[in-house]
Amino acid sequence: MNKVPMTAEGYNKLHEELKYLRSTARPEVIQAIAEAREHGDLSENAEYHAARDRQSFIEGRVAEIEDMLARAEVIDVSKLSGDTVKFGATVTVADEDTDEETTYQIVGEHEADVKTGRIAVTSPIARALIGKAKGDSVEVETPRGQKFYEIEQVEFK
């Protein structure tokens, strides 16, 4: 059983989603199925089939979240320190071609959101950064070819 690394914030978000699915979404979909059944013939009842599909999605997501929480290895980023990049680090890198700076936080897979600068620990750039320190140059294989970055800053917040 593989552990799933995640930040405390990611763990809490998953726990809240699970709570919502169990306490709100599940009862709502059960009610929708009951109402759709009252409309008669189930074989041609689009509302019934849509509600059943939604119920299937909810149950699948509940099982997925329960599995992740059971295997969670919560890492408190605020207690981490050091000069090298590791899980939870917030890293500022500069593109060596354009000098454009970008900041990423390395998080668990389910927490990743590139728009907010949170990248999965399994992503190519995170794998290239892990173990490196400020001033190091890293090479990342991207869909558009190789990119070279210099690590400007490593912090844990």
Automatic annotation (TrEMBL):
One of its GO terms (molecular function) is DNA binding. The keyword Lyase does not apply. Keywords: DNA-binding, Elongation factor, Protein biosynthesis, Transcription, Transcription regulation. Residues 82-155 form the Transcription elongation factor GreA/GreB C-terminal domain. It comes from the Bacteria. Residues 4-74 form the Transcription elongation factor GreA/GreB N-terminal domain. The keyword Hydrolase does not apply. Signal peptide: none annotated. One of its GO terms (biological process) is regulation of DNA-templated transcription elongation. Necessary for efficient RNA polymerase transcription elongation past template-encoded arresting sites. The arresting sites in DNA have the property of trapping a certain fraction of elongating RNA polymerases that pass through, resulting in locked ternary complexes. Cleavage of the nascent transcript by cleavage factors such as GreA or GreB allows the resumption of elongation from the new 3'terminus. GreA releases sequences of 2 to 3 nucleotides. HAMAP family: GreA_GreB. NCBIfam families: greA, PRK00226.1-2, PRK00226.1-4, PRK00226.1-5. Belongs to the GreA/GreB family. This is Transcription elongation factor GreA. It comes from Rhodovibrio salinarum. The lineage of its organism: Bacteria, Pseudomonadati, Pseudomonadota, Alphaproteobacteria, Rhodospirillales.
